[in-house]
Amino acid sequence: MQIMNLVDTIRTPLTVKEKKTFSPLIVQGVHEREIISKLIENEIKHVSEFEWVSQLRFYIENGDVMCKCMQTIYPYGYEYMGISDRLVITPLTDKCYMTLLGAYK
């Protein structure tokens, strides 16, 4: 539903900057929908299962946002990622998150 609202919004007259802001949100939403579909399809029912643990997740703990993936917990630093007009999220992107956070630990 949120994805369709974003798609409807991007079809309205917007500035270039607004379009560059909404486009990555649509890409991220589609990626998240695919992850959820995969979790449902694989009947993932417990938070300790690999398919869940291997996802990059964000939690609020004691007022701080924490990134979690695999066995790594890392404080989110609110880094500016820029407005990407070429955002692509693939299974390789997810593996990079796992690898980089694992290496950090």
How would you describe the overall organization of this protein?
The protein has 105 residues and is α+β, with helices and mostly antiparallel strands. The chain has one domain (2-104): Up-down Bundle (Methane Monooxygenase Hydroxylase, Chain G, domain 1). Helices cover 50% and strands 14% of the residues. It has 4 helices and 3 strands. It has helices at residues 2-10, 16-41, 50-53, 91-104, and strands spanning 57-61, 64-69, 72-75. It has a 3-stranded antiparallel β-sheet with strand order 1-2-3, covered by helices on one side. Helix 1 (2-10) runs antiparallel to helix 2 (16-41). The chain is globular and about 45 Å long.
How would you summarize what this structure contains?
The chain is an alpha+beta fold.
Supply the key terms:
Methane Monooxygenase Hydroxylase, Chain G, domain 1; alpha+beta; single chain; 105 residues
Element-level helix/strand string: HHHEEEH
Assess the beta-strand content as a share of residues: 5-15%
Structural Rg: 16 Å
Biggest pleated sheet: 3 strands, antiparallel
- Name given to the CATH architecture: Up-down Bundle
Domain count: the total is 1
SS element count, helices: 4
The helix-and-strand class reads alpha+beta
Q: Average the pLDDT over all residues and give the rounded result.
A: 86
Number of beta strands: 3
Task: Give the CATH level 1 class.
Answer: Mainly Alpha
